[in-house]
Amino acid sequence: MRASNPHYAIYGDSVLQRSRCDECGQTSLIVDGRTTCCDRTVVFSTNETIRMSPSSFIRRRPPLSVQRGILDAQANRCYYCDRPFGSSVIRRGRLTILKAVWDHYIPFAYRGSNPAENFVAACQVCNGFKSSMIFETREEAQLYLRRRWALDQSVEDLNSEPAGGATASLATRLDRGSAEPL
Prior knowledge:
The protein is α+β, with helices and mostly antiparallel strands. Helices cover 23% and strands 25% of the residues. The chain has helices at residues 64-73, 108-111, 124-130, 138-151, 170-176, and strands at 4-11, 14-20, 27-31, 34-35, 49-51, 88-91, 94-97, 100-104, 119-123, 155-157. The longest helix has 14 residues, at 138-151. It is elongated, with a radius of gyration of 25 Å.
C-alpha cells in the first residue's frame, strides 16, 4: 500500500520516515518499509520534511576548556596549513596576523550542531578558503588548502623564504610600502 501523507520527520539531528496509517488512522514511523503501529507494508516516496523539534541551529564556539585542549593538541598551529597562530602573511597588500578561529570540521551548514569533537582551530585564511566544504580526510583538506594558498596571488608568507631564496624582513617591506600594518 502507498503511504498517505508521507514525510521525513526531523527530530534534532535525526531524520525518520513517517506517514498516516490507513488501517488505524494514526501517524506512524516507517521502519524497513512497515508502519510501527500496525506492521503494514507501505511504499514511501516523498521529499517533504517536517521539523518536529527545534534544532540547535545556533552557531557556538567550543567551551574554553575544549579550546585549550584543541590548541595544545595542534601545538598552537592551524589544523589545515600548519602555520603558527600569530605568524604574519601579506594578504591583499596588508599585513595579516594569523589568528585562531573555531572551524566546524563538518560544516555547521550541514550538521546544524556544535559537538566538541567537530571543532578544529584554523587560521582565518584557511577557514575562509574552506568555507562549507566537506573533506573525507585531514590530508585531503590540507591538499586543497595548500593549492588555494598557492593560487591566491594576494597571499605572501612572511615566515618562509620567498621563491628564489631571497629574503626580506618585515621592516624592509613596511619601509618600501609593500605592506600596511593593520
